[in-house]
Amino acid sequence: MIYLDNAATSWPKPPEVLRAAAGVMAQPFGNPGRGGHRASLCAGRVVYACRETVADYLKAAPERVIFTLNCTDAVNLALRGSLHRGDHVLVTHDAHNAVMRPLSGMEARGEITLSVLKADARGLIAPSAIDEAVTPQTALCVLTHASNVTGIVQDAGALIAAAHRYGIPVLLDAAQTAGTVPLSGLNADLLAMPGHKGLMGPMGTGILYVGEHVEPRPLREGGTGSLSESVHQPSMLPDRYESGTLQLPALAGLLQGVRFVRAHDAQIHAYECELIDALRAQLEEIPGVTVYGAKDAPHVGVLSFNLAGRESAEVADALDVRGFCLRGGLHCAPCMHHYLGTQGTVRASVGPYSTLREIDQLADAVRSLASKM
Ligand SMILES: Cc1ncc(COP(=O)(O)O)c(C=O)c1O
């Protein structure tokens, strides 16, 4: 099997991730923060080490790192916790449904209004798009750092600075950049990311960084193991947002995943771009293949293509039969397909363990499929 769906979730994970996740289940680890006995304290230390490691990666205070179930959960907390009736929200054409569905639901209920920022022909958004769309009611700007369809990376630093000039806080969806593109220094007020993609952790992990100038309302309230004498939700971070038992095995794995990513630093992004550029170069030579997204735009290891006259799902299925795991369809990003004028695409996304040989094998398989058209 050749796995090229790392944009959905990364595989394989580093061996230390597997060992750590299994290790906390094999040994007597208790419920973190739920007791004074040694098993609970050991578990609490794992959670704290993970929080501290993520905080160090983001150059943030550890208490501002909130663990969530996935990136969607982090986005929902940021959006539903921050917006009020009458707010206007700026969003982008490349937003995933993790962003679009909560926002569209609020819009349909008449709670908020939405504007989509203008993108140029390469799919890039200029800071001036914010100047054009902002209104006195604009309460939040939601940016997608990299498209999960084309892999194109926006200049988040410049866009965030543009929104801040109007005093508008920014939620950055870093689902496709966390672990590969630097996130610290961008100055996002809310930063949502999965732990299970580029950060190499297990599924069931996500992170919301909550900046100093924002204070979303919690969506979930309950036991935190702290201030138990009170029936009211604690106001201190991270407890305010983390009610209920945490996913200890997954967080133990995430800790190792983030350490792995940090140990390889910028090499992972450079390597993944090298692989995806090699794939693009080969696919562009095949008659009947269209590759999406500007060649020269900044990107991550994600690429979409189509074969003339064939549905993307049909092509993905044909590749699956030949041993390749790629995703066909809309990738939960209908607005991006509207922008591209496509009904779906076949997406290849690489990870740190992907190889040039796998890329060549995929190109050969697509060549063979294209020749049978
Ligand atoms: C840009 C983007 N945002 C959000 C998500 C949702 O991430 P998760 O599956 O962790 O909820 C994805 C998933 O692919 C994504 O690509």
Structure description:
- The mean pLDDT is 97.
- The longest helix is centred in the first third of the chain and has 21 residues.
- The chain has two domains: 250 residues, 3-Layer(aba) Sandwich (Aspartate Aminotransferase, domain 2), CATH 3.40.640.10; 106 residues, Alpha-Beta Complex (Aspartate Aminotransferase, domain 1), CATH 3.90.1150.10.
- It has a seven-stranded mixed sheet with strand order 2-8-7-6-5-3-4, with helices on both faces. A four-stranded antiparallel sheet has the order 9-10-13-12, covered by helices on one side. A two-stranded parallel sheet has the order 1-11.
- The protein is of the alpha/beta class.
- Bound molecules: pyridoxal-5'-phosphate.
Name the CATH class of the largest domain.
Answer: Alpha Beta
Number of distinct helices: 11
Order of helices and strands: EHHEHEHEHEHEEEHHEEHEEHEH
Q: What radius of gyration results from the CA coordinates?
A: 21 Å
Are there runs of 5+ residues with pLDDT below 50, and where? Answer: none
Q: Which percent range fits the helix content?
A: 25-40%
Number of strands: 13
How is this fold's topology laid out?
Layout (H helix, E strand, L loop, with lengths): L1 E2 L11 H12 L11 H21 L6 E4 L2 H12 L4 E5 L5 H12 L3 E5 L11 H6 L4 E7 L11 H10 L4 E4 L16 E5 L11 E5 L37 H17 L2 H18 L4 E3 L10 E6 L4 H10 L2 E2 L1 E3 L4 H7 L4 E5 L6 H16 L2
Parallel strand pairs: 1-11, 3-4, 3-5, 5-6, 6-7
Antiparallel strand pairs: 2-8, 7-8, 9-10, 10-13, 12-13
